[in-house]
Amino acid sequence: AVRRRDVGGLLRDRLPREVHDLLQTAGELSERLGYSAYVVGGFVRDLLLGIDNLDVDFVVEGDGIAFARALAKERAGRVKVHERFGTAVVLLPDGFKVDVATARTEYYEYPTALPTVEQSSIKKDLYRRDFTINTLAVRLNPRAFGQLIDFYGGQRDLKERLIRVLHSLSFVEDPTRVFRAIRFELRFDFHLSKETLALIKGAVKMELFHRLSGQRLLDELRYLFSERTPRHAVRRLADLDLLRFIHPTLTWSNRLDRRLSEVEAALEWYKLSCLDRHISGWLVYAMALTEAMPDQAVHEMLERFPFTEAERGAITAARFLTQPVCRALSRRAPLRPSDTVALLAGLADETLVFLLAKNASASAKRHLSLYLTTYRDVKPALTGKSLQALGFRPGPLYRTILERLTTARLDGDVKTEAEERELVKTFSDQGRGRARD
Ligand code: CTP
Predict the structure, then answer these.
(1) ipTM attached to this prediction
(2) Which of 10, 95, 244, 399 is the most exposed place for a label (fewest CB within 10 A)?
(3) Cβ atoms within 10 A of the Cβ of 237, count?
(4) Buried b or exposed e, range 296-308, using 16+ CB within 10 angstroms
């Protein structure tokens, strides 16, 4: 039986005013069009869990695209329509984005039947979803604004902290849901229901994951390793015998687990120390996985999954190209900062953080962290303009001079602009000579 509950107060208290207004507008608009509109899925789940989530997904009983157009018009936004799926994205002027879908109606299944009750289509629509906790919907039409609709026991499972599929074919329909189950389990610290766990084991036995495209599997793994605790995710994948679908040679080991902890610590450090930079943490975890695989397996993995060129390059470097770099970084003999820069320039931050996680030696860690936080930002005070003012003719020589100045800065040979000018003079005869040719 459908459970109803008023969450109007929650909407009012928890949401930013603009978002609350938007939900009301959506409700009024759908009423005017003779439709019913709902906000559904993760937004509602997180509302009840007290977690901020402003990914608004509307489902409309009616013409979702017409609704989206009307909403865009009302709010001076733009709309991107996917005619074939009956879906649209509304882009509001302040950059806010909402997804709109048309509820799948009875019509699809029984071409001659009229939709029986108004709610039958939202009910069907929600039945197509992955887990009970994602099947909650809130009505938006004015007379019922804020009414929570729970057809499948979503509230009960939220309370009992359970991930539960709606029916036994869920993973057959879409094997990526297995990875989603683990993702939600770890994110919310929930458990798989007994039946859901059994169905996952069945899916693993049936090897359903070989059917998945590299793209879909990679997407899921990327999401999974972008959550808070990728190390636990790998452990969970291993427990459920799922690592082999990444590559048959991939197995869990204490060594891998240790490396994952080290990656966790290195990423933690990076996020605190390189505040204005962005890093794809998931990629560093992927590097840790490849370390546990034979060379050939890594090549096969790079074939199977459509990584971007940059990602592929970063993984390849971490796995195959950095041994000499690591050796140099760990040497006893002191490295000048400019030597460190020469060794590390051009490597992706993800690769560098992986090296940081991997290298036990204190000197390697120091060189890597200094490079990431300091060395790579060092620039001379003089610029191309200054060189022009000094009489150098613009050309490839500029680069050489500026590089030599950077090296001198890095190694502490010059500390001020005046000292840079002095240094430039020592190699300026030749340059100025040319400038006057
Ligand atoms: N969904 C599904 N099967 C999938 C992917 C998605 O049934 N393989 C459904 C889920 O029920 C979900 C909705 O589609 O509620 C939207 O998907 P998504 O935005 O990925 O899910 P969220 O629950 O919002 O997850 P997140 O919080 O990670 O964004």
Answers:
(1) 0.94
(2) 95
(3) 22
(4) ebbeebbeebebe
Beta carbons of 420 and 414 less than 8 angstroms apart: yes
- Residue 251 vs residues 19, 219, 241: alpha-carbon distances, Å: 45, 21, 9
Locate the domains of the chain by residue range. 3-160, 271-377, 384-436
Short-list 380, 356, 354, CA closest to 366? 356
Question: How far apart are the CA of 42 and the centre of ligand 1, in A?
Answer: 7
Ligand 1 centroid distance, CA of 319 (Å):
33
Interstrand relation of 78-82 and 56-61 (parallel, antiparallel or unpaired)? unpaired
At residue 432, does pLDDT exceed 60?
no
- Measured from the CA of 128, which atom of ligand 1 is nearest? 7
Task: Give the mutation target among 165, 180, 209, 225 for probing the ligand 1 site: most ligand atoms within 8 A of CB.
Answer: 180
How far does residue 118's CA lie from ligand 1's centre (Å)?
Answer: 24
Ligand 1 atom closest to Cα of 176? 8
User: What digits encode the pLDDT tens for the residues 34-59?
Assistant: 999 999 999 999 999 999 999 999 99
Classify strands 78-82 and 162-163 as parallel, antiparallel or unpaired: unpaired
Residues in contact with 241: Cβ distance below 8 Å, sequence separation at least 6, in sequence order: 204
Reported CATH class of domain 3-160: alpha beta
CB 36 within 8 A of CB 59: no
